Amino acid sequence: MNAPTLIEFFTIYVRPVLDVGILAFLIYKTYQLLVMTDAVYLIRGLLILLAIYGISFFLKLSTVTWIMNILAPGLVIGLAIILQPELRRIFIQIGRQSIFGKKSMARSSWIEAAVSASVYLAEKRRGVIIVMARKVGLASYIEKGIPLDAIISTSLLISVFEHDNPLHDGAAIISQGRLAAAGCFLPLSDQQEIRKTFGSRHRAALGIAEESDAVVLVVSEETGALSLAYDSKLYYDLSSEEILERLHILFSEQNLRREGNEVANEP
User: Fold this and answer.
1) What is the mean pLDDT of residues 155-181?
2) Given a cut of 60, is residue 206 above it in pLDDT?
3) pLDDT above 60: residue 99
4) Structural domain spans, the chain
5) What's the pLDDT at 227?
6) What are the start-end ranges of the H helices in the chain?
7) First to last CA, the chain
8) Which fold has domain 107-258?
9) Among 184, 141, 142, 139, which Cα is nearest to 160's?
10) 126 vs 9 pLDDT, higher one
11) Contacting residues for 26 by C-beta, under 8 A, at least 6 apart
12) DSSP assignment, residue 12?
C-alpha cells in the first residue's frame, strides 16, 4: 500500500482537525463576548425553548409542537429586536480587543489594593461599594457610569471614594483586573428579610449579587463595617483578613473553572 501524499495527508487528517479547531475557537470567543453582556440569559432561554421543541417533536406531542411552530417566527423577530443593543456591544468589543484577549493585572494585586483601600476608608467612615465581575459581564452597568479603564491601585480607589468627589456616591466596577468604571448605579434588592438599618449601598450590593455572579465589597459609612455580597447573600461585618481570604478563594475558583477543573471547596 502506497504512503499517502502530502495533499492526501492534509485532506484526510489535517483539514478536519483544522476545521473543527477553528469552529471551536469561534464558538468559544463568541461565548466569551456573550457573557460580557446580559445576552447570555436570553441565549439560555432560547436554548431551553429549543430543547422543549426537540422533546415535543421526538415524543410526537402534537399540541406543543403546533404551538411552538406558530410562535417560532415571532420569537425569531422578537429575539433580533431584543438582542439589538447586545449585538451592538458584542461588535464593539470585537473591535476594541485583540481576538486572543489581553493580559489583565495580576489577580492578587488588585484584590489586595481593593481591600487595602476599603480598610483605609472604613477608618475614616467613608462609604464604599466595589463590584468585582466574575463570569457574567456587567457591561450594561459600566456603560451607565464614568468609564475609566484604569490600572487598579489603592490610591486610585481611595481618591474615587473620598468626599467631595462626584464619583463617591456610585459604585466602582472592576472587570478583567482593571477599574472599568466608577459612579455606577446598581439595582436595589427587594429582599424583605435584610436588616432595616441597611442603607442603599448594602441593598445595591445585594441587588447586583442577585442579578449576576459578581462579588461586591461594601464599607458602611455609619459604622465602618466591611461586608461582602455574592451569590445573593450579604456577609456583614467581616475582618479584612477574612475578606482577603474569601476573595482569593472566589476568584481562584473562577480561574479553575475556566480551565475546566472542578472545585471541591466552596467559600
Assistant:
1) 86
2) yes
3) no
4) 6-96, 107-258
5) 93
6) 6-9, 15-35, 39-58, 62-82, 84-96, 107-123, 139-142, 154-161, 200-211, 240-258
7) 61
8) YojJ-like (1 (3.40.1700)
9) 184
10) 126
11) none
12) I
Backbone angles phi, psi at 202, to 5 degrees: -70, -35
Alpha-carbon separation of residue 175 from 142, 149, 152 (angstroms): 9, 9, 10
Q: Partners of 218 in the beta sheet?
A: 129, 227
The span from the CA of 106 to the CA of 253, in Å, is 15
Exposure of 254 by Cβ count < 10 A (0-12 exposed, 13-18 middle, 19+ buried)? middle
User: Angle 143-158-229 (CA atoms, 0-180°, nearest 5)?
Assistant: 65
Give CA–CA dist 104/120, Å, rounded. 25
Cα angle 9-27-176, degrees, rounded to a multiple of 5:
125
> Which amino acid is residue 199, in one-letter code?
G
The pLDDT, as a whole number, for residue 135 is 82
User: What does the pLDDT read at residue 2?
Assistant: 58
Tell the residue number behind the cell numbers 474569601, with chain if given: 246
86 — pLDDT class (breaks 50, 70, 90): low
Torsion from C-alpha of 258, 128, 222, 238, nearest 10 degrees: 30
Find cell 447573600 and name the residue.
233
Q: Mean pLDDT, to the nearest integer, of 204-223? A: 90
